[in-house]
Amino acid sequence: MLDRLKISVVGFTGVGKTSILQRFIYDSSFVSTPTLGVDYFTYDYKYNGQYTSLHNGLIKFSIWDLAGREEFRKITRPYLSSSQGLILVFDLNNPESFTKLDEWLTDAKIYFSFKNEKNNNLTGMLLGNKKDLNPLVSSDKAQEWAQKNGFKYFEVSTKTNTSTVRTAINDFFHTMVDVYHDQIKREPAINLVNSDTNSNNNNFKYKDCIIL
């Protein structure tokens, strides 16, 4: 029975990965410094779809927020393994962060063990962050990249119109559950992340940053 899915969140340093997760989980925009190593979150998602009866509509997501600084790449790459989903983030005001997406996707394809057979690709989503500023990367260009790789694309801001953050991630969670169940019909032996023995009754939980 499905009890947990793992997501890795990746992207160039400073694009706002942690801020997006903090906005989604706490509905707050914390001032944060670049992640050193890995941050880890869990989130209890209320699923309402064709597979609801299989797990009472509640699924725990393990969310791994990987540092974007180049010096941490060798350390963080192994954390991509056993992930079932990928969220790629870039800064709409930083073209370099957009050009780096291919590198992050290549890493994921090497380390991911779970593939979506519908498009022979990863189950992923692309987020263009900091929409509230003056974008230097066009929406058309980002959408083209996302479609080429079989991803949905959303533009978000953790400062204004923050409902788009929740809409985007909830949409992705729903897609992940559907894809997982479609896939497991073909491959019953797919492994899930181990259950968290320290889970509590809260919808949200945040564990301290892991400094590597």
Give a verbal description of the structure:
The protein has helices at about 15-25, 75, 95-100, 100-110, 140-150, 165-185, and strands spanning about 5-10, 40-45, 60-65, 85-90, 125-130, 150-155, 205-210. The chain is an alpha/beta fold and about 210 residues long. The chain has a single domain, classed as Rossmann fold (3-Layer(aba) Sandwich). Strands 6-5-4-1-3-2-7 form a seven-stranded mixed sheet, sandwiched between helices. The N and C termini lie far apart (about 35 Å). InterPro entries: P-loop_NTPase, Rab_GTPases_membrane_traffic, Small_GTP-bd, Small_GTPase.
What attributes does this structure have?
212 residues; 6 helices; single chain; alpha/beta; seven-stranded mixed beta sheet; Rossmann fold
CATH architecture: 3-Layer(aba) Sandwich
| Beta-strand residue percentage | 15-25%
Strand order of the largest sheet: 6-5-4-1-3-2-7
Poorly predicted runs of 5 or more residues: 189-212
CATH class: Alpha Beta
The CATH superfamily is known as P-loop containing nucleotide triphosphate hydrolases
In one word, what is the shape?
Answer: globular
Structural class: alpha/beta
Estimate percent helicity: 25-40%
Q: Any idea how many domains?
A: 1
What Rg, in angstroms, do the CA atoms define?
A: 16 Å
How many β strands by DSSP?
7
Intertermini distance = 33 Å
Tell me about the biggest sheet? 7 strands, mixed
Mean pLDDT over the full residue set: 79
H/E element order: EHEEHEHHEHEHE
Organism: viral metagenome
Family: Belongs to the small GTPase superfamily. Rab family.
InterPro entries: P-loop_NTPase, Rab_GTPases_membrane_traffic, Small_GTP-bd, Small_GTPase
Pfam family, one: Ras
